[in-house]
Amino acid sequence: MSTPQPPQSGDARPGPEPETLHLADTPGYPLARSVEMPGAIGYPTGSLSFRLGALQLRAEGQTEALAEEARGGTGRITITHRIPALVLTGRYALDARPDEIHEIDTAGNLRPLSAEARQPTLPAGARAVAVSHPDDETVRKWTDRADAHRTKLMKTENGRQVLIQYGTHNESYFDIFNGSSSVSSTLRKKWAEKGITQRMSQHTYDSTDPEAPAGPQPSVGDQLSAGTRPSAGDQQPVNDWQDPQEGGTYNAHAWLQRTTVQTALTTEAARIQQREPEKAERLRAAATAGEGFSKSVQQTGNDGSQITPMTQDNVYTAIDRHSGEVPAVSPQEMARYNGLAPFHDEEAQAPRAGQQDQQDQQGQSEEPEEPEDWIALSDEDRAVIQGFGAAAYHDEAHQGPQATDTLHTGDCTARLEDVRITTRLTPDGAPADVTVELPDLALSIDDEQWEGSVADVARERLAAMRFVHTLLQDAIAETVRHAAYTGVAGYAHPQDGRS
């Protein structure tokens, strides 16, 4: 990628015709069970699913450079451009299968798609965005430092109890980080995203040393009451840090990663509950323990939105003086981290026509107020939970029973206007990463031929099931991201030299 010249706001120039991008076919996403079937189908009630194929995406209009921003002191530049509109076209199939699954080896009768249409678009020579991982020497020194902290904690009663409690759930944490499911894959991706956790880990290493002498200090509680900042000699507060590249704080990132792990454990437990109940219970126990620990951390004046700077010795003192009582955590508050809950609740029994409107009018669709002793979830937290749920829902669709009948097929379209793409460049002008900002997706479906109970239920289900739209929107964003990153005509920055 050539180094772009500083863009002028509103700069647009004619270029090659945008290429058509292809998205992968979707599996049959479950919509509802126990739906009354049309008379021509050989069973009275069945389960509905909805799948998409032959999905094509094309940019309309010329790309337009919008802005350039240099982050002070880092040598990094971000450039932003817009695509006036993206047009999605494709085919859908509304499928059914009997409620009682029989051994029928069929997969619906939607027109077979070409091999090209069944694959996502990755242009020839596509460069994957590299995820930076620490080298072996860095991992070794971090591990040695963690072991030294463990040794120091073992010298106090409370420190030993902390290690014992965390050791109880080590197997669950290992399983969730190293598993093969979409939940574990999503966790690893979120953990390494943008390299923030790696930079934060290096800062933690640099600002702590359990062998360093402790400085005189009052208790954290005394300092909080007095409104002063904790200190210990010349020690640097561990959590008084801001990411030099992304700008977020230590606490904000740590707290969001806390939500990430909690969600992964809880969602995976829900996903495997039927076939591995003992492991599911073990994962839920680890998540519950983590939530209790999070509440204890809040008592120090720290969470995602508030910061009480604490040095290494402040942390040791807080552990040593802790009462040992962990705040209670209820199953209801942990259920919030189950990304699959909206799907399981909605899919269990489809509402009849008009039922959702009645619920909305009565205010039943609003989220209930949560008790004050629960950890409050931010919009960013909820987005993490929804993302895990969408990925797990996609997994369940792939692994679930196949449909035996296709009730309806037709065209589907969507138009997304004013798409913003931001590219972060390295000091030498190469792309470091690309992010895509899309408007909300409204999928238009040719459903004029739908009739009867199936039509009523399917329309309401598709309107209510956010996962279908979320997954499709994520697929579009990822496809456009790859196209912009690799310089595909019509999607890359207009000054990239290839669009």
Biggest beta sheet attributes: 9 strands, antiparallel
Helix-and-strand structural type: alpha+beta
Average per-residue pLDDT, rounded, comes to: 81
Q: Termini separation (Å)?
A: 11 Å
- Tally of extended strands? 9
Give the percentage of residues in beta strands. 15-25%
- Share of helix among residues? 25-40%
Instruction: Work out the helix count.
Output: 15
Q: Would you give an account of this structure?
A:
With 499 residues, this protein is of the alpha+beta class. 39% of the residues lie in helices and 18% in strands. The chain contains 15 helices and nine strands. The protein has helices spanning 136-153, 157-168, 170-178, 182-192, 196-207, 220-226, 250-272, 277-298, 312-320, 331-334, 341-348, 355-361, 379-399, 452-464, 466-485, and strands at residues 11-12, 20-22, 29-36, 45-60, 64-71, 76-98, 405-425, 431-437, 444-445. Strands 1, 2, 3, 4, 5, 6, 7, 8 and 9 form a nine-stranded antiparallel β-sheet that branches. Strand 5 and strand 6 (76-98) form a beta hairpin. Helix 3 (170-178) crosses helix 4 and helix 4 packs antiparallel against helix 13. The longest helix has 23 residues, at 250-272. The N and C termini lie close together (11 Å). The model is unreliable at 1-12, 100-129, 217-221, 223-232 and 346-365 (pLDDT under 50).
